[in-house]
Amino acid sequence: MFGSLYNEILFTVQALLSVASLFGMFVLSYEAISAFLVLQFVLANIFVTKQILLFGVSTTCSEVFIVSGMYGVSLIRDYYGERKALQTLWLGFSALLFIMLLTQVHLLYTHTEPMAVERAYTAIFKYTPRIFFASLFAYIISERSFIICFYL
Amino acid sequence: MLVALFLQVFCLLYSELHLAYIPSGNDTMHGFFETLFSVNGWVTLSSLFAFLSSHMLGVMLFWFIREKSKVSIGVSIFAATSITHILDTITFRLLLGCASLFEIPHFSSFLYQTVDMIIFKSAIAFITGMLISGYLFLSRGRL
């Protein structure tokens, strides 16, 4: 019955799960929601390379994280202030930088694993530096444009 | 601890959801994600169980060694960390072995690999113990 809407149903489940988790973390503490957003940020940048079809449009699996991430940052901004929101964002970039360095070192190791596993690691993590810099520049540009638009 | 546990479960759920998506026609990455993350559930559960059980024991061991034997903090850290790492390695390897994730052609090679890991982790525990005790010794005046 839902065969043609399989991805859309999964997307809804994922969105509900993300928002419910985000709200749960928000109720716990600032540290909890901050850690959750950092994790979402890292996962979004790792899983961004898989392409799916949603409502007939080609997109990536990380779209939910963008929405719940923005919602989370807005919650922090409203309840804990601008400084904490920026701190969370830079924590996310630091975590991503750490993951980028770690994965590049991981790829340099001579492996004893089966070749299929090695190929999968290379295919997924070789893009991490490019994704990191793209994310960073996209964030800086969007933040600047948001401030410019806000004060216009 | 609760947050860390929740984040680990979230990662597990998310990776399963990610694999469940039907890739689009021009996607080339799904196969690679499947290779890496299809065993993720077992790995996470084994790791979680091994981590929790061994680290709870590690905390108790550290307290026991420190309070009962009155040895230096470096020795306490080294002893507690070594035993924790050894137990963590053995539990994790046994759970993975039970789940048939790693092929174990001969029990002897499995044993050799486990012993290698234990030696390597003991060396790391030794370095960690030395670093922490050195740091505590140098910063004693300021603590």
Write the layout of secondary structure elements.
The complex is a heterodimer of chains A (152) and B (143).
Chain A: H1 6-28, H2 30-47, E1 51-54, E2 57-60, H3 63-80, H4 82-108, H5 115-125, H6 128-151
Antiparallel strand pairs in A: 1-2
Chain B: H1 2-20, H2 30-37, H3 40-69, H4 73-98, H5 107-138
Structural features, described:
The complex is a heterodimer of chains A (152) and B (143). Chain A has helices at 6-28, 30-47, 63-80, 82-108, 115-125, 128-151, and strands at 51-54, 57-60. By secondary structure, chain A is mainly α. Chain A has a two-stranded antiparallel sheet with strand order 1-2. Chain A is globular. Chain B is elongated and about 65 Å long. The longest helix of chain B is centred in the last third of the chain and has 32 residues, at 107-138. Chain B has 143 residues and is mostly helical. Helices cover 80% and strands 0% of the residues of chain B. Chain B has helices spanning 2-20, 30-37, 40-69, 73-98, 107-138. Classes of the chains: A mainly alpha (152), B mainly alpha (143). Chain A binds chain B through residues 6-7, 10, 13-14, 17, 21, 24-25, 28, 31-32, 35-36, 39, 43, 47, 49-53, 58, 61, 116-117, 119-121, 123-124, and chain B through 2-3, 6-7, 10-11, 13-14, 17-18, 20-27, 29-33, 35-36.
Shape of chain A: globular
- Fraction of residues in β-strands of chain A: 5-15%
Residues in helix, % of chain A: over 70%
Q: What is the helix tally of chain B?
A: 5
Structural class of chain B: mainly alpha
Mean pLDDT of chain A: 82
Structural class of chain A: mainly alpha
Distance between the termini of chain A: 49 Å
The greatest interface between two protein chains, and residues involved on each side, is: A-B, 31 and 25 residues
Shape of chain B: elongated
How many strands, which pairing sense, and closed or not: the largest β-sheet of chain A?
Answer: 2 strands, antiparallel
Beta-strand percentage range of chain B = under 5%
Helix content of chain B: over 70%
